[in-house]
Inverse folding.
């Protein structure tokens, strides 16, 4: 007859303490995420709790991109903060990508690099750790991210630790989705406000230079751009030049003009369609990769400014970290680009109208001046014109000024009975 082993009091007390700690951790997470809608704050709190629970040397939290095709590092504990947002992993790539694709956890107590799913990623912190546990973050039965708890030395993960980590991942999945929805709502409100302000700005009586500067500033805020710029086409030279940017970078502001078809912006104008680049520092067709590296630029979208089926310029938006521009974002940029194009076209028409009015006024003045000279000097029309032209050249005055002087002298002569010399 076998005797069932009765757990010791000390063992039961230890188990009770562990359960109490687990309940406390879950309570703290629940309290935190229920009172917090800011996504970045939620993610930071999650990694801190995971490190506390697992005694991990590091914790990395990845979220699925908007395009649902890659994971982006969004929060971490201990790795360098500059890595946030700059590390991406495709679904199925490495252990982290495998966890997201297969929607199941992976526990590796030692020699992580020996696992057949392991893939080396440049500068990825997990490659320097011996052991880690990786669990998918789920929301509404869909994967939204992955949490990795990592250890530099081999580690035996207890079942209760793994279960708690999975519970945390499931619990925060809904909070992450809520925070994402809140972020989307805020972005949508900002987009509506920006489009409204763009319309007001375009319809205002401001100088076109001020209008374009306001547009790039508002667009950069709406798109969270590292750099936003407007380049206009000089039809005479066939070159695009930077007309406005919110960037303070002198190197970017001094970028040489682009020919149509050159680099990304030139292609957008030539093809009259938006062009998206995932990483300008790795894009062969981007002409300023050294400048992009120095300025910390990554993803880019270039949208042509079109009016009456003509591309007259381009709006560029750069991010500081990898970003998959959505169809909605491109449409918003296109709407702003078209508004800017209309403002420029409107200003051009006004300037042309003013120039035509000026030319007509000068012509009328010259006709009156010629008429006076023909009457008073007995000159032919051609002789009168040549006299005005010669005096304009000799005195280095415009023909308008000479005509006005002749008419003024004629008026004085008529009033005084004098004679024009």
């Amino acid at each position: 007859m076998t005797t069932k082993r009765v757990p010791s009091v000390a063992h039961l007390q230890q188990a009770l303490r562990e359960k109490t700690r687990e309940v406390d951790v879950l309570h703290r997470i629940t309290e935190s995420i229920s009172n917090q809608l800011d996504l970045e704050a939620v993610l930071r709190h999650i990694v801190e709790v995971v490190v506390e629970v697992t005694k991990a040397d590091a914790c990395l939290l990845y979220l699925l991109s908007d395009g649902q095709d890659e994971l982006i590092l969004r929060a971490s504990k201990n790795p360098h903060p500059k890595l946030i947002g700059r590390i991406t992993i495709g679904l199925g790539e490495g252990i982290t990508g495998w966890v997201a694709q297969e929607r199941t956890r992976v526990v590796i107590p030692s020699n992580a690099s020996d696992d057949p799913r392991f893939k080396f990623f440049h500068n990825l912190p997990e490659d320097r750790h011996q052991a880690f546990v990786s669990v998918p973050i789920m929301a509404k039965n869909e994967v939204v991210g992955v949490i990795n708890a990592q250890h530099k030395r081999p580690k035996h993960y207890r079942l209760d630790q793994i279960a708690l980590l999975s519970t945390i991942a499931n619990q925060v999945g809904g909070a992450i989705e809520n925070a994402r929805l809140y972020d989307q709502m805020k972005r949508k409100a900002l987009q509506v406000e920006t489009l409204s302000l763009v319309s007001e700005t375009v319809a205002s009586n401001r100088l076109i230079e001020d209008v374009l500067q306001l547009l790039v500033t508002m667009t950069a805020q709406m798109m969270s751009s590292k750099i936003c710029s407007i380049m206009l086409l000089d039809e005479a030279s066939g070159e695009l030049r930077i007309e406005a940017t919110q960037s303070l970078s002198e190197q970017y502001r001094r970028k040489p003009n682009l020919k149509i078809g050159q680099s990304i912006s030139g292609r957008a104008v030539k093809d009259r369609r938006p062009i998206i680049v995932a990483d300008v520092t790795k894009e062969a067709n981007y002409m300023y990769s050294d400048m992009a590296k120095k300025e910390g630029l990554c993803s880019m979208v270039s949208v042509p400014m079109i009016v009456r089926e003509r591309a007259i310029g381009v709006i560029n938006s750069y991010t500081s970290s990898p970003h998959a521009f959505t169809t909605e974002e491109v449409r918003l940029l296109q709407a702003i680009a078209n508004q800017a194009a209309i403002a420029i076209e409107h200003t051009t028409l006004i300037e042309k109208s003013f120039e035509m009015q000026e030319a007509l006024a000068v012509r009328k003045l010259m006709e009156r001046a010629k008429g006076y000279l023909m009457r008073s000097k007995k000159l032919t029309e051609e002789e009168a014109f040549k006299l005005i032209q010669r005096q304009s050249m000799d005195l280095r005055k415009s023909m308008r000024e000479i005509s006005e002087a002749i008419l003024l002298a004629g008026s004085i002569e008529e009033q005084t009975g004098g004679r024009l010399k």
